[in-house]
Amino acid sequence: MTDKDRPILETRSLGKRFSIGTRFSAEGKRTVHAVDNVSLTVWRGETVGLVGESGCGKSTLARCLVRLYDISDGELLFEGEDITSKSLSELRPLRRRLQMVFQDPSASLNPRRRVGDLVAEPLRIHSKLSSSEIKKRVAELFDLVGLLPDHVMRYPHEFSGGQRQRVGIARAIALNPDLVVLDEPVSALDVSVQAQIVNLLADLQEKLHLTYIFIAHDLSVVRQVSTRIAVMYLGSIVEEGPAEEVFAAPAHPYSQALISAVPVVETTPSGTRKRIILTGDVPSPLSPPSGCRIHPRCPIAAERCRSERPQLREYRPGRKVACHFPTV
Amino acid sequence: MILSVRDLRVSFRTNDGLVRAIDGVSFDLEESEILGVVGESGSGKTVSLLAVMGLITDPNADIEGSIRYKGRELVGLPARELRRLRGNEIAMIFQDPMTALTPVYTIGWQIAEQIRAHRNISKSKAMDRVEELLAEVNFPNPHEAMSRYPHQLSGGMRQRAVIAMALSCNPALLVADEPTTALDVTVQAGILDLVRKLRATHKSAVVFITHDMGVVSELADRVMVMYAGRVVERGSRAELFSDPRHPYTRALLGSIPPLTGEKPRRLPAIPGSPPSLLRLPQGCAFGPRCPVHYEPCATGKPDLEGDTHAAACFRVAQA
Ligand SMILES: Nc1ncnc2c1ncn2[C@@H]1O[C@H](COP(=O)(O)OP(=O)(O)OP(=O)(O)O)[C@@H](O)[C@H]1O
Ligand SMILES: Nc1ncnc2c1ncn2[C@@H]1O[C@H](COP(=O)(O)OP(=O)(O)OP(=O)(O)O)[C@@H](O)[C@H]1O
Ligand code: SF4
Ligand code: SF4
Ligand SMILES: [Mg+2]
Ligand SMILES: [Mg+2]
What we know:
The structure holds 2 protein chains of 2 kinds. Helices cover 31% and strands 23% of the residues of chain A. Chain A is α/β, with parallel strands linked by helices. In chain A, strands 6-7-8-3-9-10-12-11 form an 8-stranded mixed sheet, with helices on both faces. Chain A has a 4-stranded antiparallel sheet with strand order 2-1-4-5. In chain A, a hairpin with a 2-residue loop joins strand 9 and strand 10 (236-242). Chain B is an alpha/beta fold. Chain B has a domain at 31-53 and 76-258: Rossmann fold, CATH 3.40.50. In chain B, the strands form 2 sheets. Chain B has a 7-stranded mixed sheet with strand order 6-7-8-3-9-10-11, with helices on both faces. A 4-stranded antiparallel sheet of chain B has the order 2-1-4-5, covered by helices on one side. At the A-B interface, helix 1, helix 6, helix 7, helix 8 and helix 9 of A face helix 1, helix 6, helix 7, helix 8 and helix 10 of B. Residues 247, 284, 286-287, 290, 292-293, 297, 302, 313-315 of chain B line the site of one iron/sulfur cluster (SF4).
């Protein structure tokens, strides 16, 4: 079997539940089903873009994929090996190969350490490089992500938001991992630095055959970096397919609304794009609606949608949708 | 005039020398006006507005210049006075939501405390108001959400909790630092509506820092572009987007990835890096990366020239 036809990562009906409240609070103990029945296959060398409303479960799924969270339901496979319930020590050899860039950079950077140290840390733990080689590699990484040599000695609080975000990226790529989960990695960057990072990720992917899972709200960035995208709603995937195809012709009513609502700089007279704004309340994973979870907000919901939950199914090679009435 | 900033300079003393983060920034803000601030990462957007809020806590910082709020000088005002203004008349939404939240209390408690610190109302009244606010920022289950700790919320929910906190006192001046980066387009559209509503009902002035040009073009009346601690261009939204003048602004607008049409293999990024703030170049700070730089650029620093639409560039001044 070659790399091409073996998935690097696979989830089978993966779920993650949190319990909130206590026995003593007014509502008692309750369960948040943050990720619900996600089956996703990720192939080596591709970039899967993960998009969806705030709170739909992207970060939770991301943390499950690199096993920073314990998995509540289903299975997680890395290169065909079941790692669903591997212990921390069993996961250690995988850590180098599976990296994550966190949505909130300041929470993941120790404020008392210089950023040069923070980037060197994974190299010291997992590589056999000498300290002068590490120093050289850190300088190289800083240059790659567009940080200056005199930034090495600074502390995280002495950085701007976008500079901290790039420290997180430098740390994640330091060890040439196989798979990197990037949770909003460019959200704090101006468009030019963002372009620089996006190009860097593409170069590394080409050179090292990296695989990315890329989470972002900025859909034009997602389209640029992703080979495939998966659209999530309330913990589940509702549409999946090649990025350009899904952007050009989304099949699911929710994807259609999401893509149509992107604000763009109007250089041509406006009125050419039609926006679909979803009305109704954002549902809570504490009490999900019956049937299709989008039905209270879906512009084309029918009777059937209220009772029967649509399954994610492949309607054409490579394109999947979970809707009774998709636009296909 | 609600806010008037003149020749603001902020520098930080570090082990490696003096970091000149803000190098002479001036701007005005009228009542009911929304000013969009864009610019290179690290160009001083956050620091300049933290200075306005009196929130630079680094003991190694030096602040010079003048910041007048409704005619009153804020530079040198005692911390106690500043605290009274903040949260009452002036509110800030931080780039990093955890700056404004503590991990050990529920968000309901934290927002209610914020309200009670500035208004004399009962705890239960404050809690009702919190629930209202959380609903306004699109929390799926506002009542239940009040009892959650920050770590039990998604990134975008934390950001919205901070927005709710900032809006709780209907501030006359709202400073929002990348408030919608963690929000999807639909929720973002809702937040932009709230900002417009605040302006319409309370004549509030808003400074909105963002790198999302789509958001700027939807929300801002005027736009200010920053590079290496200075304002390099300012103008009305229309002036800036239809007639960008400064080479940096032009390059920035050229880097936006397209949403339709063919995907470019690589995105056009501005080559090179911004200058080190420890060693700013003699001349124009954008010079080393500027595609049209010529002799004068290496010797002097261009001033912001023009009336409503102004750019700091020798080429533009000459044209
Ligand atoms: N406490 C500090 N000590 C030293 N340098 C600092 C300190 N705080 C900020 N800086 C530097 O000042 C410059 C301006 O930072 P600022 O946070 O204002 O940037 P920004 O424009 O908000 O960028 P971003 O878009 O990435 O958030 C940066 O280069 C930063 O590294
Ligand atoms: N530790 C936790 N305890 C309880 N609930 C949680 C916890 N972490 C996340 N949640 C809930 O799970 C849901 C999914 O959260 P998640 O952070 O995965 O969303 P997200 O898609 O990353 O959103 P965003 O775009 O805002 O970052 C949310 O409803 C959130 O409140
Ligand atoms: S199944 Fe029905 S409610 Fe759900 S997205 Fe499709 S049409 Fe809308
Ligand atoms: S002053 Fe010179 S270097 Fe600076 S932006 Fe203008 S042309 Fe370019
Ligand atoms: Mg998230
Ligand atoms: Mg900033």
